[in-house]
Amino acid sequence: MKKGYSFKQLCADLHLWLGVATSIVLVIVCFTGTVYTYEAEIKAYYDRHVSSVENTEGDKQSVDELIQTLSSEKKVFSINIPADEEKAYVINMATPEQIKEAQNSKKKRRGIGKYYYVDQYNADVLGTPNEKVKKVMMGFMMVHRHLGLGWDIGRPIVGWSTIIFIIISLTGLVLWLPKKVKQLKAGLTFKKNAGWKRINYDLHNVLGFYSLIILLLMGITGPFWSFDWYRTGLNKALTGEEKFSRGERPKVDPASAKQTKSVTYQEILDNANAYLDYKGDVSMTLPSKKSPYVAIRKTNKASFFSLQYTDQVYYNAQNGELIKAELFKDKPLGKQLMSLVKAIHLGYVFNGFSKLLYFISCLIATTLPVTGLIIWINKLKKKKQRKKKKAALAV
Length: 395
Prior knowledge:
Keywords: Membrane, Transmembrane, Transmembrane helix. This is PepSY domain-containing protein. Pfam families: PepSY_TM. The protein is an alpha+beta fold. The protein contains 16 helices and 8 strands. Helix 1 (about 5-35) runs antiparallel to helix 6, helix 7 (about 150-175) packs antiparallel against helix 10 and helix 9 runs antiparallel to helix 16. It is elongated and about 100 Å long. The two termini are about 35 Å apart.
């Protein structure tokens, strides 16, 4: 380093030039992330005419009755039961022709079926999710993850830009820190009756500070999907384990799998809801040859502010015995954090409350490269004017 080149100057240079280098990528990634924050709500809005139950009077049909009614034409693979009582069940199923075609094309089982909204009170099929909206939201996600350039090219670009974004955020904090306490107010508030240059500066400086923590959380979790080494390293740091694992499949005693069925799916579902005693969305996957058990996932939706964690339990499909339980509360802190990486990155870790904060923060992040470039351009103009003034005085 040259003499007089301070740490703050280094941070200023890193903040500027790394920001300039990644500005276009970060604007695209942050904008698509802003939209994708409310992906579920956007889909729900366009599906509202087919996803709601009109008449909630009377008793719901049991899952066994629904399966029996629907199985006359289609094979049912899974049933999603929303926490909202007025929302229809979402059932994944396929016709025998679709199953045969998928088997011939060697598709995975989960890719065979199609999702349908089904009225849980009368088993009427209300409709299917809007495919156009689904494709549009998937397009936003693909641009967010690899800029639409494909995995091999776009994913590392986004990954490294996200890592650089972490450096930009931290150097920005260093630059924001005031030399004196009495100057703190200037970094926390917008200056009144200011010109457009000062307004632009405050938009970058003040809003950048208030959104910093959430932006760092986004940045730290983002490369999880870009690099295997990053995912492995993060897992090692949090859990101490070398490999990231989503859990092992439960083992079912072959003899018990051949027993005469003595329990209904509804009884298994009721037992699971009693075991996982909180309000939440439930996903029930029916047994297959490869997975001869009933798998039930429940995601906490207790309130607008509650932690959105997921528990998973597995039951013997023949006798209803609990085979395995993977409960969030039983995991060490490191594994809890690893299981929440996606929720932390996408903003739904604290349900609607965190989604709102993430939406605002991601919207701010979209503007930061723009306001930053404007600040830089204004400084260049000011520097050029100073040189002209010095040259004029020298004459």
